[in-house]
């Protein structure tokens, strides 16, 4: 099970990654949209995710907190733009504060405040191909450059997250 990153999109500042999962699309969609599933697989390996709020509708918010084993906390949010069950989710992902407001990330590089993500789910023979495309929203040239420079790190991060999703789906 390998991830496929579309290098041709890099010139357009778009990060694209694809993973095939051994599960039907309906189940994968539930894993992306229900709190009891999201907190079991979303985010970097080794972190605990707590869903604070999940309002699954255009204009709604998925607000969550990630905790390290040492107790450090980072907040995040998805602001949903489009939900087409069970095939597509479009949301703007950002770091956030505990109230859900958008904040700068907890690292020094000038990362974009908002990233537009499109998740598509395509099923064939009982397996689902997940494709995520991400592009900065209203980003400065420097933020866009840092985003583009982060593709390798994003590939590794999403790889671990996809591994957790695959393990979660296999356990259902």
Automatic annotation (TrEMBL):
InterPro entries, alphabetized? ASHA1/2-like_C, START-like_dom_sf
Q: Any idea where the Activator of Hsp90 ATPase homologue 1/2-like C-terminal domain is?
A: 22-169
Which Pfam families does the UniProt entry name for this protein?
AHSA1
Instruction: Check the record and name the Gene3D superfamilies matching this protein.
Output: 3.30.530.20
- Source domain of life: Bacteria
Q: Which family does it belong to?
A: Belongs to the AHA1 family.
Instruction: Report the protein name in the record.
Output: SRPBCC domain-containing protein
